[in-house]
Each structure stands twice: as structure tokens, then as C-alpha cells.
């Protein structure tokens, strides 16, 4: 059911791409994502020993080769094919791989732990975004003159002051989620992973700003009025997911 529903959406979106070649590449990437999702139902990440011969690395390699062959077969020049292929690789790793991590932990034996940690991750990401916003507004209200941008050439709104606020709010969110959801791990472990996850999320924001700057657009789309596209809402989540995966593995590997 999941494959049918998402396949319909991806197929519909592919039909509205400005270039049919990008539509084909999108379908290839979707195929890789679906295989990774189905693979995770048999071989969750917390079970490294599986009977399936084809692993996730093989799937990515096949996806890379499929995109490479298609680009060189459909492009007018090898230079154009190479540039577009490298951009496709970035998209495949950035979006497909990071989102596939979220579903690659699913194990029927410990699904409750997975759900708890996923909820905690969402709390942390949302709270850190809120914290950075509130700190920025508060400092602006008091005419704070000493802003220190993280990367002014990418985003003037991302600064160290906001990052400190994001970390503080993220820690509070983790403490609250840990108390409500009874998460495993020591206090030190939870705080450490939260700090790293928030920093990773800020880097995710900057990376998406880099992509938008390269594309010459303000937002990744117009799906959410006033907030841009879906990627604008989950850019931090995708980077923080990598940290979440390590926390999950820490409490599931035996």
C-alpha cells in the first residue's frame, strides 16, 4: 500500500518536471528508495547479519550506474552528462539515503523503541528551530549588534547566537521527551547526542541554503504557503537523522 501510494505521488510529480530527463531520474531514485524501504523490513539496521545477498550498498551502486548510463545516453555532450550526473548523485545521497535511514531501523521486535526515539528526534528538531527563532527575535528586540553568522554567504539568518539557543531548546526538549517516553541511556549520553543532532541540523539548513543559492531560488518549492517546499521543512531533520541512527544503534546492537 505504501509503495502504491508513494509511487502514484512520485509518478505525478515526475510528469510535471520541467525536463523529462529529470522525471526519469526521479523515478530511478524512487526505485532505490523503495528497495531500501523493503530491504529494511527484512534486514533492519540493528541486525547486521542477514541472509539477503544484496545489501544497501549494492542498491546504491546499481542506482548510480542506472542514472549514469541514462544521463550519458540522453545528454547532448559528455560535459553536460557529467555535471547533471554529479548533481543527481548529490540528490540520491542527500535525500534518498538520509530519508531511507529513518525507515531502516524498523524492527518488529523493538518497534516501540523506534517510535519513541523518532518522536524524540522530531521534538528536538522542532524545538531547536523554535529556539533559534526566539533567540534571534529577542536579540533583535534589544538591538543586539554583535551577530556572528555561521556562513553569511549562504544564509544571513543562521548565526552562532541562534545555534546556542537551538542547542538549549533542543536539550530541554530531549529531557522532556526522555521523561515522558522513558528513553534509554544516561543523561550525559542524551545531552551529548542532542547537541550533536542540533549542530547537524543547523548544517543541514546551511546545506539546503547552498543548494538554493546554486539554483537561484529562495525556497525549495511552494507546497507549504509561507514556508516554502517540503525540503525547507525537513532539511535539518535529514541531517539530524544520522545522529539519531547512532543513538538507536547504541541501544539496539547486541
From TrEMBL:
The protein's name in its UniProt record: Cytidylyltransferase family
Keywords: Cell membrane, Lipid biosynthesis, Lipid metabolism, Membrane, Nucleotidyltransferase, Phospholipid biosynthesis, Phospholipid metabolism, Transferase, Transmembrane, Transmembrane helix
Primary residence: membrane
Keyword Cell membrane applies: yes
Organism of provenance: Phytophthora infestans (Potato late blight agent)
This protein's record includes keyword Transmembrane: yes
Membrane topology reported for the UniProt record: Multi-pass membrane protein
GO MF annotation list: phosphatidate cytidylyltransferase activity
Biological processes annotated in GO: CDP-diacylglycerol biosynthetic process
Top-level taxon of origin: Eukaryota
One Pfam family recorded for the sequence: CTP_transf_1
Compartment annotation: Cell membrane
Transmembrane segment boundaries: 25-43, 55-73, 85-106, 118-142, 162-181
CC per GO annotation: plasma membrane
Amino acid at each position: 500500500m505504501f509503495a502504491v501510494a508513494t509511487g502514484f505521488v512520485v509518478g505525478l510529480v515526475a510528469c510535471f518536471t520541467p525536463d523529462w530527463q529529470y522525471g526519469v531520474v526521479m523515478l530511478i531514485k524512487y526505485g532505490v528508495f523503495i528497495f531500501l524501504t523493503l530491504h529494511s523490513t527484512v534486514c533492519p539496521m540493528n541486525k547486521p547479519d542477514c541472509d539477503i545477498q544484496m545489501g544497501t550498498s549494492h542498491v546504491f551502486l546499481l542506482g548510480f550506474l542506472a542514472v549514469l548510463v541514462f544521463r550519458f545516453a540522453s545528454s547532448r555532450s559528455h560535459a553536460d552528462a557529467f555535471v547533471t550526473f554529479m548533481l543527481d548523485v548529490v540528490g540520491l545521497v542527500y535525500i534518498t539515503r538520509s530519508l531511507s535511514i529513518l525507515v531502516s531501523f524498523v524492527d518488529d521486535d523493538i518497534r516501540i523503541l523506534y517510535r519513541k526515539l523518532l518522536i524524540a528526534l522530531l521534538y528536538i528538531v522542532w524545538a531547536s528551530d523554535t529556539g533559534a527563532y526566539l533567540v534571534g527575535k529577542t536579540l533583535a528586540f534589544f538591538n543586539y549588534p554583535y551577530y556572528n553568522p555561521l556562513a553569511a554567504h549562504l544564509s544571513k539568518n543562521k548565526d552562532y547566537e541562534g545555534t546556542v539557543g537551538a542547542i538549549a531548546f533542543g536539550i530541554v526538549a530531549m529531557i522532556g521527551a526522555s521523561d515522558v517516553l522513558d528513553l534509554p541511556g544516561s543523561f550525559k549520553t542524551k545531552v551529548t547526542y542532542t547537541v550533536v543532532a542540533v549542530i547537524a541540523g543547523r548544517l543541514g539548513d546551511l546545506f539546503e541554503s547552498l543548494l538554493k543559492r546554486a539554483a537561484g531560488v529562495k525556497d525549495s518549492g511552494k507546497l507549504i504557503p509561507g514556508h516554502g517546499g517540503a525540503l525547507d521543512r525537513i532539511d535539518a531533520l535529514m541531517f539530524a537523522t544520522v545522529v539519531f541512527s547512532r543513538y538507536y544503534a547504541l541501544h539496539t546492537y547486541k
